[in-house]
Amino acid sequence: MEKPIAPVDMSEHPISIKGLRKSFGDLHVLRDIDLELYKGENLVVLGRSGTGKSVLIKIVSGLLKQDAGTVNVLGQEVDKLTTKELQQLRLKIGFSFQNSALYDSMTVKENLEFPLVRNAPHVTRKEIDHAIEEVLEGVGLSQALNQMPSELSGGQRKRIGIARTLIMRPEIMLYDEPTAGLDPITCIDINNLINEVQERYNTSSIIITHDLTCAKSTGDRIMMLLDGRFEKTGTFEEVFNTEDERIQTFYNYNFTS
Amino acid sequence: MKKSGKYIISKKIDGVFTTLYDVYRFLLRFFKEVLFPPYEFKELVKQCYDIGYKSLPLITLTGFITGLVFTKQSRPSLAEFGAASWLPSLVSIAIIRALAPLVTALIAAGKVGSQIGAELGSMKVTEQIDAMEVSGTNPFKFLVVTRMIATTFMIPILAIYTGVVALAGSFINVTQNEQTSFSSFVESSLQNISFLDLFSSVIKATLFGFTIGAVGCYQGYNSSKGTEGVGKAANSAVVVSMFLIFIEEILVVQVVNAIR
C-alpha cells in the first residue's frame, strides 16, 4: 500500500540531531549521525538488526546518553535537561516499544490511565474515562478495556501500546519496530494505524524498522542506516534506486525471502 | 583466543569492585529518593498488602510448626534434668530472641525476595521500566523505593506475628503434656524476656526486611540477558539475601550481647 501524502512543514524541526555518536565498549554503534525530522512527517529509519536504530530513539527520549553530538527535541537539548525538565519533555513524546511494554500486572484500562493519572492529577474520573474510550476507539479495541495484557494477541498489544502513548496527546511519536513479530495482515493494520495517528493527531514520527513493507507504507521519508551511518535519504524509490550493493542486498533479502 | 588465569582473576576482582560500587550507588539513590517528594503512598500501601498480608498463610504455618516442634524436641532434654517446667521460658527466649525474626526473614527472602527479583527483572527485560520512565514516572521511586520501604516495615510486623503464632504452637504442646494453664504459660514465657530482647528482635527484623527489599530490587532492577536474566535475578535475590541475613544475625547478636 502506498503512503498517503501528509502535510509536512519543512521549516520546523521537532527533532534535530547533529554529529551523534554512541559506542558500547569497543562497538561503535552510531557514528556521526545527522538527522532532522520535519513537522508532521513520518520518518523511517531503516537498517538491519543490531545497527543501532533503537539506540537512536532511546537517545532521543533520554533513556540513553550519547557519547558525542547534540540531540535537540522540541527546542531543548535532551542531555542538558534536569530530571524534572526531561520528565516534562517526555510527556510530549510517545514511545511505542518493540514488545509493547504493557504493564503485566495491570488491566488494559489501568495501563491506559497510568500516564494520565500520574501526570495530570487534576483530571477528573469522567475525563479519564472519556480519554480512554477515545483512544481505545481510535485503535479499534474498545472491547479490550478490562482484559489483561496476557489475554491479548501480539497485534492487539501493539495497538494498546500505541493507545497508551496517544492518551497524553504527544507531538512526537517514536515507533520501535512496530511490525516485528506480527503476521502480514496484522502488519498492514499496524501500518494503517501509524498513518491514522499521523493524520488524526498531527504527530511527527520516527519509525524504526527493518521491514520494507512497513517503510513503504508509512514513511514520507526514509533514511538508510548502514554501519552506524546514514548512507541514503529520500523517498522509498530514491533510496532503493541505487548501485550500492549493501542497499540492494537489503532490498532483495526483504522482498525475496 | 585463550585467556590467561591472571586475566580471568583480575577480571573477577574488577567485577566484584564494580558490583560493590553499583550497590553503593543504588543504596545512595534509594536514600535520596525516599526523602524527596512525590511520595508513592498508594503503591506503598499496595506493596505492604502484597508483602505483608499475602505472606500470612505461609508465615502462620511456619511459625506455628516452629513453636510446636521446637517445644516437642526440647522437652526430653529438659525432662532428663527434671526441668520440664522451664520449657515455656526456654522456648520463648529462643523464639523471641532468634527464631521469630530469623524464620520470618528466611521465609520472606524465599517468597518476597524472589518475587521482587523476578517481577522487576521481567519488567526490565520487557522494557516496562523504560516505558514507565518515558511516560513521565520515576520507575526507581515507583518500583524500588516502595518495595524497599514495604519490606522494611512489614518484616518486623510479620516477625512479631510469627513470635505470637510460634508461642501459640508451643502452648498447645505444653498444655497437652504438662496441663499448664494459658495464664501460667504466658507468665513463665515472659518471665525472662527483657525489653532489650524485644527491641533487638524488632531491629534485627527491620534490618532483615531492608536487606530482602534491597537485594531483590537491586537484582531485579539490574537484570539483563532476557529470561535467563530474570531467573538469575530471582535466584540471586534469595541466595544473597539469606547469606546477608545470617551475617547480620551474627553481628546483631554480638552487639546485643555486648550491651547486655
TrEMBL record, chain A:
Name of the protein described by the UniProt record: Phospholipid/cholesterol/gamma-HCH transport system ATP-binding protein
GO molecular function: ATP binding; ATP hydrolysis activity
Domain ABC transporter: 15-252
Matching InterPro entries: AAA+_ATPase, ABC_transporter-like_ATP-bd, ABC_transporter-like_CS, P-loop_NTPase
Recorded superkingdom: Bacteria
UniProtKB keywords: ATP-binding, Nucleotide-binding, Transport
Organism: Arcticibacter pallidicorallinus
Nucleotide-binding found in the keyword field: yes
Automatic annotation (TrEMBL), chain B:
The keyword Nucleotide-binding belongs to this UniProt entry's keyword annotation: no
Keywords for the protein's UniProt record, in alphabetical order: Membrane, Transmembrane, Transmembrane helix
Presence of the UniProt keyword Transferase in the record: no
Highest taxon of source: Bacteria
A GO cellular component annotation in the UniProt record: ATP-binding cassette (ABC) transporter complex
Listed transmembrane segments: 51-71, 83-109, 148-174, 195-221, 233-256
Pfam families reported in the protein's UniProt record: MlaE (PF02405)
GO molecular function, one term: phospholipid transporter activity
Protein name, as recorded: Phospholipid/cholesterol/gamma-HCH transport system permease protein
Organism: Arcticibacter pallidicorallinus
Higher taxonomy: Bacteria, Pseudomonadati, Bacteroidota, Sphingobacteriia, Sphingobacteriales
